[in-house]
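Dear colleagues,

For the upcoming journal club I promised to circulate an example of a predicted protein-ligand complex. I picked one with flavin-adenine dinucleotide because it came up in last month's discussion. The inputs are reproduced below in full, followed by the predicted structure.
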Amino acid sequence: MTVEDSKPQTVAVVGAGLVGCLAALAFQKKGFEVTLYDMRPDPTLTEDRRQKNLRSINLAVSSRGIAALKYVDEEMASRILEHIIPMKGRMIHDITGKKQESQLYGLFGESINSIDRSFLNECLIKEIKLAGVKIHFNYKLVKILGLEKPDELVTLSFVHSHSEFHTAKYDYLVGADGAYSQVRYQMQYFMRMNFSQEYIDMQYLELYIPPNNDPEASSKFSIDANHLHIWPRHNYMLIALANEDGSFTSTFFSPWSVIESIKSSDEWLTFFESNFPDAYKLIGSEQLAQAYDHNPRGALMRVNVYPYHDPNGKALLIGDAAHSMVPFYGQGMNCGFEDVRVLMELLDQTNLNVNEAFQQYSDARKKDVDAICKLALDNYKEMSSKVTNSWFLLRKKLDYTLGRYIHGRLIQWLPLYTMISFRDDIPYSKAIEIEKRQSKILSRIQYGTVGAVLVYATIYAAKFWHKFNRQN
Ligand code: FAD
């Protein structure tokens, strides 16, 4: 359904990041007149990374993200998905450099997919331009007026190119301006919005593994491209995801105290070589020293907001502006894309009544957003240390085996990772409910099996002892 027949209603989307771009395209497809604003310069017009002002992070795109892209535009989705690199499981690198495939992600060969965040953002901006959405770069939102009066338009004020002011009025406003959202800040003047922001004691530093330039080599990738590589070291870890050109974007995560205790690039090289000897060779000492000296240390935080809409149903927060989460379940963007799909479905259900859709959105989305934010935090423990624990790996194997063999129409066993990453039809909160039930069964089987082995071993030992005593 679209609003083309009546006078088009106007929507401003603030933030041309991943989620804002998808939201702008989705509204445009429904027949709204959309204008997209971003404070950055247009990243598609320059090759210079610093001017693009984008961090090089590789994202794992999974089912929910893909489903939302397809929901908005099937053809666009296939143009973008051409560039992804499937990752079928985790590859664990131990301290001696030995590699072990620890867990396949999908039960039946499903993969999560690596893509460079800035590349994806540029793809979406190009799609925005193709679709004819108005887009203004170098426009920084500074003020919102008119939210408190139900019949007034929303007035947005921007600073343009550092000095000029620009004001524009719209029927509706979507805030997709990221974790430090100005839209959110401005909305708080007019309404009772619960808001909390919590930094976790963790930083990340971007590193880069170059393509394999050895002309004799069979692959342009120096390690397997179809795995998410993890170097778990309990207190800190390194990960690497492949890029199309044969390089890997690698990220070092650690508590702030770890990185701050390293005082020079020489100390950094010593630290890195002793903890990640194989990665040290892949990245090279020159690249590593350069990254230490020049790359920023990123902070990680959670943002919790409720409600996401204003009481008059004229403005809405989506993406990181509504729920910034730590990156350890690879769901921040996937969840933001799903926000767009959920919103569009509500628009359909309300016959394109934006007001009503905005008002229903907060209740429809809250418990799922809370669920994935918590899972993301819990998954750090799993990635950084549990993946080396035999008891945990045994449990995962059992979970995975049950998933593979119990998948009828009436009874299904669904590992949590499958539900989060490969099933866009199971809401995040429902996935947690199912996991809780399965987890109890899993514990019984695991403890039961160990118990049975112990009982069997005791009986066997008793028999042996009895026989031994009789013979002597
Ligand atoms: P952003 O990408 O932050 O975009 C916000 C936009 O708003 C920016 O372009 C900004 O310039 C603009 N803006 C801000 N303020 C204003 C203003 N006042 N006026 C105008 N414009 C403004 N997610 C996954 O799904 N999978 C992953 O594997 C994954 N890995 C990650 C790894 C790391 C290390 C990190 C840090 C994040 C990861 N994420 C991942 C999360 C993902 O990157 C974010 O959830 C996603 O980028 C959020 O998109 P967004 O559009 O909501 O916000």
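Two points we might discuss: The chain is about 45% helix and 25% strand. The chain has three domains: 10-85+113-198+302-380, 200-299, 389-459.

See you all on Thursday,
B. R.
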